[in-house]
Write a structure and sequence with these properties.
Chain B: This is F-box domain-containing protein. Chain B: Keywords: Signal. Chain B: InterPro entries: F-box_dom, F-box_Sdz-33, Zygotic_Embryogenesis-Asso. The complex is a heterodimer of chains A (about 200) and B (about 500). Chain A has about 200 residues and is mainly alpha-helical. Helix content of chain A is about 60%, strand content about 5%. With about 500 residues, chain B is of the alpha+beta class. Among the domains of chain B are: about 160 residues; about 110 residues, no CATH class. In chain B, the strands form 4 sheets. Chain B has a 15-stranded mixed beta sheet with strand order 15-14-13-12-11-16-17-18-19-20-21-27-26-25-22, covered by helices on one side. A 6-stranded mixed beta sheet of chain B has the order 5-6-3-1-8-9, with no helix packed on it. The chains are: A mainly alpha (about 200), B alpha+beta (about 500). Chains A and B meet through α4, α5, α6, α7 and α8 of A and β7, β10, α2, α3 and β15 of B.
């Protein structure tokens, strides 16, 4: 069981679309409003399923979150020119496909700072352009692509539901635990913690 | 603000390895931090040298800025080559000086792109960039800004090659929320350009909930569309190029984006453009339309046909327009001011004044009789100063007997007398003096084009109409001379 007070020290397991799991610090994860809304106050039992996104994308997103843990609180969008060297390198390293995946994941996880910087980079592509020039940059989707997008949106809604169910399930277990006798509660919590942090025992 | 000229000290040898051997041109992406509390001007000297120099390559190899220079860079000059180290001569160095003005409060990394133009003599030459001067100090030798080259990449020629394979981005495959985020980071001008790409972009832009205080139209030799929120940009439409709009910037504004943009949409006319702008700026009506032009300009009928049907809050007609020109607009006009009437045709003017406007104002240079005023059907009637106070009295008496039934407010302005001659104005009218403790608020704001508050009245004379309707006659000073008289009907 993870308490809110200790969430910056603990690590959470994240599950990607490949079924792989990896750990992310609570401090990094707290930059996700989606996570905050679902798990911050109740903790997570087992891996958190962000199974709509692949491991590489999620790792990239959380790389950004880990980096910005110590930065001052996000206070609204910044201009591209205000980005640090690290930020610039972070974005420059990505190809377009990865960039799009990162935006989508960041949007789903509702990480304001990362989403904002991604959007600023896209806006820069259109900066100073007239309509004709914009059309050349923006590839307008075909009817098939629009349909596909619709399906993706539906899939994402289903994924969000799955995450929400997981959160609800965890919350339910938490409530059950609170009803157990004290000794049993201690044992159950110990078992859960052992299971959860087994993979981090070398730290 | 105090300006200080700062000098540059060339101190650092930051990049020792040869960096680019194959490019015809270089682009240097250099960032520097400027966060001075005061306004400074300083120079950056930026040198590039070829380890295997060849004097023949000097021509055309001087750097120039790429146009991506950022706010604060006021001047970029090229000082040419010079021989730096005579022992190794002929070593050449193109020198670029960047003059940057830091304004109070400006802070953050800025990027300068310096591009060396394509030069046949440079082709296939191996060049080494190994030195640049970046340490910026003030006169006392204190460092005031840090700078570093963050990347060195291909120059214009290589970029051109890339340009041939167009750089595209599938913006609309992203979730709508993200697309909205992107749009919010664009300028108003860019957003207008985006909005005409498709019906979807139009709806997307509308959903940003941008609002402009007003959207207006000034018709003269060209048509200016006023959208205050996009200031300092302004929009023009031309009678000869009906499918296009052009967006200009005021010359006095020192902004990066000075480019005039032309927006063209096949099949569009002025009316379509206005409907589009009203839609994306969430406006239901044109706030103000001014018809004024010089006599040589022929306003085509198609112009009026095009904007017919668009709701207009306030229409002002100047100069040479005849009623037949703008007749089709009148059913959609709420407030109307007639400033000049070229025809002097009584029937023509009566056709205008009998319309049911919220506000009707006719300027004093147009002669109107009492009968004309009795024909008016507007909620707010502004009587011009040419009318005598005796005529005002007769108008009020007619109102008591049932004329102008739609009228809620009447305003009469006298610029010739210091005080109202109340004996004349109230002659033959039964009235009661407004009691000292009676204050009444009349909601005139929405009926008049120029008033931004309602009338609070605590004095005057209460009168009754024959059907029982009550009203107050109220006068107040009009500085420097004259007075205003109101007939205010109670709700």
């Amino acid at each position: 069981m993870t308490s809110p007070a200790s969430s910056s020290e603990v690590k959470y397991l994240i599950e990607s679309s490949e079924g792989n799991t990896f750990d992310v610090s609570g401090a990094a994860l707290r930059q996700s409003n989606t996570f905050n809304a679902m798990f911050l106050n109740i903790g997570a039992d087992g891996p958190i399923p962000f199974t709509d996104y692949n491991e590489a994308t999620l790792k990239k997103v959380f790389e950004y979150c880990e980096h910005s843990v110590n930065e001052e609180n996000y206070s609204g969008p910044k201009h591209q020119d205000d980005l640090s060297k690290w930020d610039l390198n972070f974005f420059n390293e990505m190809d377009q496909k990865m960039f799009i995946d990162v935006i989508n994941a960041s949007n789903f996880l509702d990480i304001e700072r990362l989403t904002s910087y991604c959007c600023e980079r896209i806006a820069r592509m259109l900066r100073g352009k007239n309509t004709q020039e914009m059309i050349k940059v923006i590839t307008l989707p075909t009817a098939e692509e629009l349909e596909a997008k619709q399906k993706v949106e539906e899939k994402k809604a289903a994924a969000a539901k799955k995450v929400a169910e997981k959160a609800a399930e965890t919350a339910e277990k938490t409530e059950t635990l609170e009803e157990l006798p004290v000794q049993q509660l201690v044992q159950t919590t110990r078992n859960k913690l052992t299971r959860k942090y087994l993979s981090f025992s070398n730290e | 603000m105090k300006r200080m000229l700062l000098t540059i000290f060339s101190l650092f040898l930051l990049l020792l390895a040869p960096v680019s051997a194959q490019y015809d041109t270089f682009t240097f992406n250099m960032s520097f931090l400027c966060g001075h509390p005061k306004q400074y001007t300083y120079d950056i000297t930026f040198n590039i040298r070829d380890e295997n120099p060849d004097r023949s390559i000097r021509e055309g190899a001087i750097a120039s800025e790429s146009g991506e220079a950022n706010i604060g860079i006021t001047e970029i000059s090229k000082t040419g080559f010079y021989e730096k180290e005579l022992s190794r001569a002929p070593v050449w160095e193109p020198v670029v000086e960047v003059r940057h003005t830091c304004f109070d409060g400006q802070k953050g990394f800025k990027t300068i792109l310096l591009t060396f133009p394509t030069c046949p003599a440079l082709r296939n030459k191996t060049r080494y960039v190994y030195k640049y001067y970046l340490d910026i100090t003030d006169k006392s030798g204190n460092r005031v800004a840090d700078a570093e080259i963050t990347s060195i990449g291909p120059g214009a020629a290589e970029k051109k090659k890339k340009k041939n394979s167009p750089r595209t981005f599938p913006l609309f495959n992203l979730p709508d929320k993200v697309v909205k985020h992107v749009a919010r980071r664009m300028t108003y001008v860019e957003i207008i350009c985006l909005s005409i790409i498709s019906d979807r972009t139009k709806k997307l832009v509308k959903s940003l909930n941008m609002t402009s205080k007003s959207v207006g139209l000034h018709v003269w030799t060209i048509v200016s569309i006023s959208v205050p929120v996009i200031y300092p940009h302004f929009i023009h439409w031309n009678y000869d190029d009906v499918e296009s709009l052009s967006i200009h910037i005021q010359l006095t504004n020192d902004l990066r984006d000075r480019k005039t943009r032309k927006l063209t949409k096949e099949g569009f006319h002025l009316g379509d453009w206005i409907r589009h702008l009203l839609f994306i700026f969430n406006h239901a009506e044109l706030s103000r339309v001014m018809l004024s032009t010089d006599p040589e300009t022929v306003i085509p009928k198609s112009f009026f046909d095009s904007i017919t049907g668009i709701d207009i809050r306030h229409l002002e007609v100047f100069d040479r327009y005849r009623i037949k020109d703008y007749r089709s607009l009148l059913p959609y006009v709420k407030q109307f001011t007639l400033l000049e009437n070229p025809s002097e045709n009584r029937e023509s003017i009566q056709e205008v004044i009998i319309q049911n406007f919220d506000y009707l104002g006719v300027k004093p240079n147009i002669r109107l009789s009492l009968d004309d005023y009795l024909l008016m059907n507007s909620s707010f009637i502004k009587m011009n100063s040419k009318m005598t106070q005796k005529t005002v009295n007769r108008f009020i008496r007619h109102w008591i007997h049932g004329s102008n039934p739609r009228m809620k407010y009447m305003e009469y302005i006298s610029d010739r007398r210091r005080r109202p001659h109340l004996q004349k104005i109230l002659k033959g009218i039964n009235y009661q003096v407004v009691p000292d403790d009676q204050v009444r608020v009349f909601e005139v704001q929405r009926y008049t084009p120029n008033r931004d508050e309602d009338l609070i009245v605590g004095s005057g004379f209460n009168i009754y109409r024959r059907d029982g309707t009550q009203a107050t006659i109220h006068a107040r000073k009009l500085r420097p001379i004259g007075f205003r008289l109101f007939l205010l009907v109670w709700n």
